[in-house]
């Protein structure tokens, strides 16, 4: 896996350890050789303006000048994710007592979750780095995204998930073909297995393991889009679901980059993290005032967020504390209520991660932690059609009637 | 007590490229000390200056993350499979 003169990773210049600052050349590396800390992409951004972005494609590649991808990335076969709706959520705002609320609805991506963003960037980088197979351990949504992206790119995929995943997520992965393995264990077990396999299979790019520095940058596009869709402005507050914590930390990174590039006004914003009580290692550490995260064994219906040992947990704590945010957790019953509330008020059917986020928003408002007068964005990161069992027991038709007007009248539905 | 230790890619420079090596010791602490005796320098990569397992290293004895067991004092029975893995994966 060597870099050639033809390797084009756009504005990326090097890999830097987030913990100790050690720098190394770009390549298929993810952990620092000195301290095992996460490697991050360093950049030299050139000529990125609001106009250059606006003239780009109507997907994440409009931000390619801010990503570790080649200049021609939009011309190679990919799923073209991004530029999902930013929905003005007045009904939900009113029911929660908020003045201004937006839902970034990432269920509108090609495989119906924000994971298409990170996978598209990982695929582009993996190609440049010479990998042949696109692989991942997944809590479900990433499995869909990797299998679909590999199918579209015409390469092999190798996807590993916990065997107790929602039936919908099994089917919506298997349909794309590729190698698809269910593993008897929880996500953290699958993740560990993937790390071990990555050490053996030289030409497999595990998107969230050995090419994770590139993959993670894809979540920045959520931050860029929110700012652009608000008219090149940052929101006052944002609530983001947390599993590994990558998405949250990269949204913050995107906001910071936009400020440094002068694309938005530099003003304070607060970042809040959302977890399920049955898998709340980051929320627990936040509340206890710790800066390390103690792993847990997950037990929650929010399986997409069921990572007991989150890689970016400490950085979520940093971001929440630096910006005056918080990390909160909600029960499974609150998650179900959150899904229903978003659906009933805004016509958006989110998956359990969205339910976690809406329920956390509500809890933060009730506790007075989140300012109801400040402009707020929440992320709906996935689609409710993939977690039907969460709401199946609590929703049903209003009535079942014979096909006659009399039956309609008798049912009292008028 | 002979155990088998899986070495992550970034530590294979110490083991001459070997991805799996043998070591001796009744606890993880003793195993790491024995690894150091065979592969000088490797201990300081796994443990921090205070002698604790580094924040971004996960160590497993069998299937168990030693953070759920007794950390460096976790027992390493004869024939145990130990894995050292960078923690910055997943999501
Ligand atoms: C729908 C959904 N939302 C949020 C997340 C959390 O992402 P991260 O691991 O970047 O914190 C996931 C992760 O799998 C997910 O599937
Ligand atoms: Zn380092």
What does this structure look like?
The complex is a heterodimer of chains A (414) and B (91). With 414 residues, chain A is an alpha/beta fold. Chain A is built from 15 helices and 13 strands. In chain A, the strands form 3 sheets. Chain A has a 6-stranded mixed sheet with strand order 4-5-13-10-11-12, with helices on both faces. Chain A has a 4-stranded parallel sheet with strand order 8-7-6-9. A 3-stranded antiparallel sheet of chain A has the order 2-1-3. In chain A, helix 8 packs across helix 9 (246-260) and helix 10 (281-288) crosses helix 11 (313-323). Chain B has 91 residues and is an alpha+beta fold. In chain B, strands 2-1-5-3-4 form a 5-stranded mixed sheet, covered by helices on one side. The radius of gyration of chain B is 12 Å and the shape is globular. The complex binds pyridoxal-5'-phosphate and zinc ion (ZN). Zinc ion binds at residues 17, 19-20, 22, 32, 34-35, 37 of chain A.
Q: What brief labels describe this structure?
A:
heterodimer, A: 414 residues, alpha/beta, 6-stranded mixed sheet, 15 helices, 13 strands, 15% strand, B: 91 residues, alpha+beta, binds pyridoxal-5'-phosphate, binds zinc ion
The largest sheet of chain B has its strands arranged as 2-1-5-3-4
Determine the number of helices of chain A (DSSP H or I, runs of at least 4 residues). Answer: 15
Number of strands of chain B: 5
Class computed from helices, strands and strand pairing of chain B: alpha+beta
Span of the ends, CA to CA of chain A = 68 Å
The order of strands across the largest sheet of chain A is 4-5-13-10-11-12
* Helical segment count of chain B: 2
Query: Strand content of the residues of chain B, in percent?
Result: 25-35%
User: What is the typical, i.e. mean, pLDDT of chain B?
Assistant: 96
Helix content percent band of chain A: 25-40%
Largest sheet of chain A: 6 strands, mixed
* Structural class computed from helices and strand pairing of chain A: alpha/beta
Number of strands of chain A: 13
